[in-house]
Design a protein that fits this description.
The protein is α+β, with helices and mostly antiparallel strands. Helices cover about 55% and strands about 5% of the residues. Strand 4 and strand 5 form a beta hairpin.
Length: about 400
C-alpha cells in the first residue's frame, strides 16, 4: 500500500473540507472529532451550493441519512432529499431514452458505446440514483456518424450547429455533436472521438473489441471496458481541471473495482495519458482517501503527475465553472496554460503545428469559393496578422 501522497489543501473552506470528509467516508463509517467540529460551524447554504456545483449531492444525501445527527438542520436534509428525488427522476428518464436509442441503433446496425450517464452510474455506484447526469454521451464510428445523425433527427432531435469548419478540420479539432429533444428535454452528445485534438487514443474497433454489456436494462447496452473507461474518465476530468468532484468520485469508485493495472498502465503510456492517470490517482487519494496499491506505483512515479494534481486545486478551491462562458479573464488564462501543461511533448508539437492549419475565422475574414480553400494555407499568416491588428478573434 502506498501512503506518502500529500499536497497543500490548507486554503480550502470549512464547507469544502466537510464535503471532502463526507465523500471520504465508506459505508457505515463515522466522522472524526475534527470533522464533527466542522459540522457544527458550517455555513449550510454555502455547503448546499458546493454540493450542487460538484454534482455530488446524491452521495451527500446518503451520508447525511447515515449520520442521523441533530447538528444538521432540517432544511438541509429536506433540500438534499428534494435534489436527490429530482435526480432520480432525471436518471430514470435518461435510462428509458437510452433503452429506446439502443434499440433503434441495433435496428440500423449502428455500433454505439455509451460513455457516461445511467450505464456508468449503475456500474460504478450500483444505483443510477447515486450519480448525476444531464445528458447521454455515446461513441460511434466515424463512418456511421451521418447515419446516427439522420436517425436522431427522425426521432425528433434537433442538431446544435455550433461547429464551424473549413477543410474538414472538425474531424480532429472537435470530438462530438450535440442534439436536443425539445419535448423530452433530453440532450445527446454523439462522439466520434473520445477527446478533441491533440490526443492519441484507441481506435473505435479496439474499444468495441473490449466493450462490456450492461445489465441495467433488458436490451443490450454496450459501454467501455474497465481500462478504457478509466482512460476516458481521467482524460475528460483532467481536461476540465477536475473542477467537479463527481468526476473524481467516479475514479475512486473505479479504483475499487478489479482493474488490470499493468494493462491499464501500458494503455495510458501508449496513448500519452500516464501523467494524467497519475494525476487522477494522486487527487483521489489525497482528497477522497482512495486507497493506493503497489500496482499503481508506475503511474505515481512521475513528478509531473503530482504537479498536475496540485494545479487542479485552483479550480476546486475557487469553485470554477468551466461550462458557463465567458470565463473570468484570470480563469481563462490559467486554464489555457493548464491545458498546455497537460500535454506530452509530442502533443505540444501537434498543438502548435495545428495553428498552421486554416481556421474557420480565415474563411470568415476572406470568403473564397470552396474549390479555392487550399489557398488558406499560404494566406493564413496574413489573415491572422490582419485580425490581430484589428483586435478581432484570431
Amino acid at each position: 500500500m502506498i501512503s506518502d501522497v500529500s499536497f497543500h489543501i490548507g486554503n480550502f473552506s470549512q464547507e469544502l473540507r466537510l464535503l471532502l470528509a463526507m465523500l471520504e467516508m465508506e459505508e457505515g463509517s463515522e466522522l472524526t472529532f475534527e470533522q464533527w467540529e466542522l459540522l457544527q460551524e458550517i455555513d449550510w447554504h454555502a455547503f448546499i451550493e458546493l454540493a450542487r456545483h460538484h454534482r455530488v449531492f446524491p452521495t451527500i444525501h446518503l451520508k447525511l441519512q447515515e449520520l442521523k445527527t441533530p447538528h444538521i438542520p432540517l432544511f438541509v436534509s429536506g433540500m438534499f432529499q428534494r435534489d436527490y428525488y429530482r435526480n432520480t427522476l432525471q436518471m430514470l428518464a435518461l435510462s428509458g431514452e437510452m433503452e429506446q436509442l439502443s434499440s433503434r441503433f441495433a435496428d440500423k446496425d449502428i455500433r454505439a458505446l455509451f460513455l457516461k450517464g445511467p450505464v456508468i452510474a449503475a456500474d460504478l455506484y450500483g444505483d443510477v440514483s447515486l450519480r448525476t447526469s444531464c445528458d447521454l454521451d455515446l461513441l460511434v464510428p466515424m463512418g456511421q456518424l451521418e447515419t446516427t445523425e439522420e436517425l436522431l433527427i427522425s426521432l425528433g432531435y434537433e442538431k446544435d450547429d455550433y461547429i464551424s469548419s473549413v477543410l474538414n478540420d472538425w474531424k480532429w479539432r472537435h470530438h462530438h455533436l450535440t442534439f436536443h429533444h425539445p419535448s423530452k428535454g433530453i440532450k445527446v452528445e454523439v462522439h466520434w472521438r473520445l477527446n478533441p485534438a491533440p490526443s492519441k487514443e484507441p481506435s473505435f474497433d479496439e474499444l468495441w473489441s473490449r466493450k462490456r454489456k450492461s445489465s441495467l436494462i433488458s436490451r443490450p447496452i454496450y459501454y467501455l471496458g474497465r481500462e478504457d473507461l478509466f482512460l476516458f474518465l481521467v482524460s475528460h476530468g483532467a481536461r476540465h481541471g477536475w473542477s467537479r468532484l463527481r468526476w473524481l468520485l467516479d475514479i475512486k469508485k473505479l479504483m475499487n473495482q478489479r482493474v488490470d493495472w499493468p494493462r491499464l498502465t501500458h494503455l495510458l503510456k501508449k496513448h500519452h495519458y500516464h501523467n494524467i492517470g497519475g494525476q487522477a490517482l494522486f487527487l483521489a487519494a489525497r482528497l477522497l482517501a482512495a486507497p493506493l496499491k503497489e500496482e499503481m506505483r508506475p503511474l505515481l512515479a512521475s513528478r509531473k503527475a503530482e504537479w498536475l494534481a496540485e494545479d487542479t486545486l485552483f479550480y476546486i478551491q475557487r469553485m470554477v465553472n468551466l461550462h458557463t462562458p465567458p470565463l473570468p479573464k484570470d480563469v481563462e488564462r490559467y486554464h489555457r496554460q493548464y491545458l498546455f501543461a497537460l500535454m506530452s511533448k509530442r502533443q505540444k508539437l501537434q498543438y502548435m503545428a495545428s495553428f498552421l492549419y486554416p481556421f474557420p475565422e480565415d474563411a470568415r475574414t476572406l470568403p473564397l469559393p470552396k474549390r479555392l480553400h487550399f489557398l488558406y494555407f499560404p494566406l493564413r499568416p496574413l489573415l491572422w496578422a490582419w485580425r490581430k491588428t484589428r483586435r478581432l478573434p484570431v
